[in-house]
Amino acid sequence: MSAAAPEVQVAARRAAMLDKLASLDEEQAKAVAGGGPRSVERHHARGKLMPRERIELLVDEGSAFLELSPLAGWGSDFAVGASVVTGIGVVEGVEVMITANDPSVKGGASNPWTVKKIFRASQIAAENGLPTISLVESGGADLPTQKEIFIPGGKLFRDITRSSAAKLPTIALVFGNSTAGGAYVPGMSDYTVMVRDQAKVFLGGPPLVKMATGEESDDESLGGAEMHARTSGLADYLAEDERDAIRIGRRIVARLNWRKAMPGTPAYAEPAEDPESLLDLIPSDLKEPFDPRDVIARICDGIGSGNAQVFDEFKPLYGPSLVTGWAKIHGRPVGILANAQGVLFSQEAQKATQFVQLANQTDTPLLFLHNTTGYMVGKEYEQGGIIKHGAMMINAISNSTVPHLSVIMGASYGAGNYGMNGRAYDPRFLFTWPSAKSAVMGPAQLAGVLEIVAQASAESKGEVFDAEGFKGVKEIVEAQIEEQSMPHFLSGMLYDDGVIDPRDTRTVLGICLSVIDNMPIVGTDRFGVFRP
Predict the structure, then answer these.
(1) For the domain 34-254, what is the CATH code?
(2) The pLDDT value given to residue 219
(3) Which of 57, 296, 300, 436 has the smallest count of CB within 10 Å of its CB?
(4) pLDDT recorded at residue 279
(5) Domain limits, the chain
(6) CATH architecture type of domain 275-433+500-517
(7) 154 pLDDT band (50/70/90 cuts)?
(8) Which long-range contacts (CB under 8 A, 24 or more apart) does 157-163 make?
């Protein structure tokens, strides 16, 4: 482990991280607020619950709910959270994916970020073998943005039917409107529960039916819960109220005869170091390195009562700026790749490649802890084969079939983001800390490269480069890249599954590793060509 940082430095780091966490809380509170107090009060007055209230009643008492992508749509024209809540909860002892429309935000209408957020939830459910429960109350598509929703949105319904075909049960609890395309959610689910006098499921409401056919009808006869329970057969269960619908939903899950691929909860010891002190480790200036072993000691299991050994490091003297080794989190084994000094050299890339092969040989999930500025550049390193060694590492990551988890702690720049299993490489789960930044390169470096290119362009034309005048351009570029590399922005784009408090990392990873055990873990021995 690294030497203890001076007390003043530790206090400064903690204060900086707490400021970032306070800012994160403010942004996440916007998602929890939904459409605002007036809208929430109006729904409560109708006897309706809000999405998180429904989820709280649905999941087992005292169990955790891992909310996903709570900042979806941040920085866009749409409400933070994208008018839907998604996450993983435990219902009757079964881990399930839950999606819940937020009717307080434009009636739960789906905007482009809603669609992307549900796509991601569906992907997680499919990859990890989870049943899905949809808590439905939506007026359908946000019509002004239909051009961004209609064509890709069909995938939502395709995913429901594919889940059913894969024997991953799908359950719809309909609390209110489920109209137009939204009618296919209960229509395609394996089990459908509708709330009497509240659920309304039809392809076209009374106004559309009158316009299209001239027929006069009312909500109940056209698509009410009792009609669907008695006449159309779309409703499998008729609930008296919302709490009754949730009770029925829990009973459905209890009768699924669900069995995990890897049942049971393994025994584990608490970490060797207090996770609370994670706030003391991360410098506010990401150019300042920190030892990832200190993070590992706070998120991984200790051994026995003495907690003497938490991490068996692999190749500790070779490629030292990438730490690799074996550990356990909540009793489940993981292989860890963690950036130490920021830059990845050829040795680090070759070490990572071997380590990924070993993890696949033993069917061990991999955890990537990001703090990298990317692969090393320069004549010496190019001649030494940094491109082919980096390609070797990316080859191994791309073709590895054991589950991957990623946590971006600090920097995740350039191809280092790819080599460390960034979003483009489909980790099962990816979370960021409030200290994280991701971009093609750091803001100052990118602005500096643009200046060099502009100067070369001017000189090639025989013009005098105005360095003083270019300062304003550099400042604008730096500010833009700084904003676009921040965790709120990236999470809003759904480039992660959520920004988390570092102190919650162990718990979040423990939930994810438990979820992964719903499917068999099988490593590969087939990789692409490794260039010699």
Answers:
(1) 3.90.226.10
(2) 82
(3) 57
(4) 96
(5) 34-254, 275-433+500-517, 439-485
(6) Alpha-Beta Complex (3.90)
(7) confident
(8) 157/181, 157/184, 157/185, 157/188, 159/119, 159/122, 159/126, 160/132, 160/184, 160/185, 160/188, 160/189, 161/188, 162/126, 163/122, 163/125, 163/126, 163/132
